[in-house]
Amino acid sequence: MIEVQEIRLDPDARRTWRGDDEVVLSRKEFDLVHCLMVHAGDIVSRDDLMREVWHTTFWTSSKTIDVHLGWVRRKLGDDSRHPHLITTVRGQGLRFETQDHRVPG
Questions:
Q1: Domain boundaries, the chain
Q2: Please, what are the averages of pLDDT over each run of 10 residues along the chain (105 residues)?
Q3: 3, containing H or E segment
Q4: Measured between alpha carbons, how far is 85 from 66 in angstroms, rounded to an integer?
């Protein structure tokens, strides 16, 4: 079981929860979240994501990652304008944050 913030992921059963609620992810969505959570706190480059999640080194557009990321954020309750789970590090890649850095208010 992998746990980061309020997200739990069981790689063997391929199941995901936010708190006590199970979140149903497609195969690629699960693979994307799994890859990011395994490397939580570290930036994962788009090249690495294409290699590890889509098993390819050839890609012409990052739209594939962006579309799947949008679906994942929506399902996990991560606001794309102010994400607290998965952040985009411009020009470098994506990072699954180990802590929620939002200011309460």
A1: 2-96
A2: 97 97 97 98 94 82 87 95 94 94 62
A3: strand 2-4
A4: 15
